[in-house]
Amino acid sequence: MRDNSRSQQALGFLLGLVDKDTAARVRARTGLPGPEAPEASIRRLQRAWTWSRLLPASVALWILENDDRRTMYAHFVTGGFRHDAAWYAYGPYLTLQLAHAYLLAGNPERMDALLGWTVGAGSPFVAGRSAALGAWNEQHAYPVASDFREVPFPRWYMGDIPHGWAAAEYPLLIRDILFFEADEDRDRHLYIAPGVRPHWVPGGAPVGVDAAPTLFGSPFGYRLGHDPAERTVTVEITEAPEGVRFVCPCAFGEVRSVSADGRERPATGRDVRVPAGIWRFSVTYA
């Protein structure tokens, strides 16, 4: 999870969109101040944000998701993220940002669904014909997205195309799906394939990274292979920053056993934790 100096402001905005009881419970859990009066909101928007405690964006999302089933996903997502505050259209780049937040919050299933919707939105089909040439709009109009089954207003638009923000969000998300860094309490570690889903790696099809720059100053690379018949996942580290351990969330099933460089290691839950200096490990799952 990563700190984001804007995440508290974003959380305050989201709490204004859910019902008052849910917002009050979240504010009580996190120690956030009460909702602002309209005149206070105007003053806040005219000055720098001054909350002293930073809340990681992924933590904010986790709070909303676990507080009540009627929050984020139910309110704002039908395939993609619906921007009904002003656009009355889907936001492809906002959908990718939400997918990224779900990845960091440990919900790769929803990340995968949002990513899949966004990829499809790049080339929507209307009346059997492609309505765009493999690019994302800033606003993806409901009529185009639904093949004109949903036309809430007689006038609508598609926004900027191609939209650079969406084009930037996509590789940033894919990069963190393959691996991302963490350094809580100066405990440097790398998450390996935290967003790789089982259907991405059918038998014999590896996924990996080569010479990828990291925040730790040295490149990282690995190869992950999946043998569904043996219910085994094997990871080979090809290069890594010195002194950095690894965490590999097993998306395939409950971990039965872990072998690292030929030695058995403890196996608990679905997060496989491997110390620094290991170059190959295998995971057998249920």
Give the helices and strands as they follow along the chain. Answer: HHHHHEEEHHEEEHHEEEEEEEEEE
What is the topology, as strand order, of the major beta sheet? 9-10-11-16-13-14
The CATH homologous superfamily of the largest domain is termed Golgi alpha-mannosidase II
The total domain count is 3
Helix content: 25-40%
Beta-strand portion reads 15-25%
Could you tell me the number of beta strands?
16
CATH topology of the largest domain: Immunoglobulin-like
Tell me the CATH architecture of the largest domain: Sandwich
Spans of at least 5 consecutive residues whose pLDDT stays below 50 are 1-5, 44-52
Number of helices: 9
CATH class of the largest domain: Mainly Beta
Characterize the overall form.
Answer: globular
Oligomer: single chain
Distance between the termini: 28 Å
Structural class: alpha+beta
What's the story with the biggest beta sheet? 6 strands, antiparallel
Structural descriptors:
286 residues; disordered N terminus; 3 domains; six-stranded antiparallel sheet; globular; 16 strands; four-stranded antiparallel sheet; alpha+beta; Immunoglobulin-like
Question: How do the helices and strands line up, and which of them pair or pack?
Answer:
Layout: H1 7-15, H2 20-30, H3 38-45, H4 57-67, H5 72-76, E1 77-78, E2 80-83, E3 89-90, H6 92-104, H7 108-121, E4 125-126, E5 129-130, E6 140-141, H8 142-145, H9 164-178, E7 179-182, E8 189-192, E9 207-212, E10 220-227, E11 232-239, E12 245-249, E13 255-260, E14 263-265, E15 271-274, E16 280-285
Parallel strand pairs: 8-12
Antiparallel strand pairs: 1-2, 2-3, 3-6, 4-5, 7-8, 9-10, 10-11, 11-16, 12-15, 13-14, 13-16
Helix pairs in contact: 4-6, 6-7, 6-9
